[in-house]
Amino acid sequence: MKKDTIASLLDFFAGLFVGIALVCGGLCFFLLNDLGLVVAVFFALFIFGLFVFFALMAKSMSALIKESHKERI
Fold first, then answer.
1. Residue 33 DSSP code
2. Among 19, 35, 53, 59, which residue's beta carbon has the most beta carbons within 10 A?
3. How would you class 52 by CB atoms within 10 Å of its CB: exposed for 0-12, middle for 13-18, buried for 19 or more?
4. What's residue 70's pLDDT?
């Protein structure tokens, strides 16, 4: 695969992970609200943080793979 294809796939997965983080974080909060507010907020933030971490990793790898016309320091 070419670098541009891999960078595009990583950008796609970064967006996908952000969408999953938002949807699953919200759903986790509303579904676990019966167990208590603290438990629901904890699990919602955990799920949100987990998927946002993967999104940041994918976006960072995509930025490193893309060819830049500027010289890197």
1. G
2. 59
3. middle
4. 61
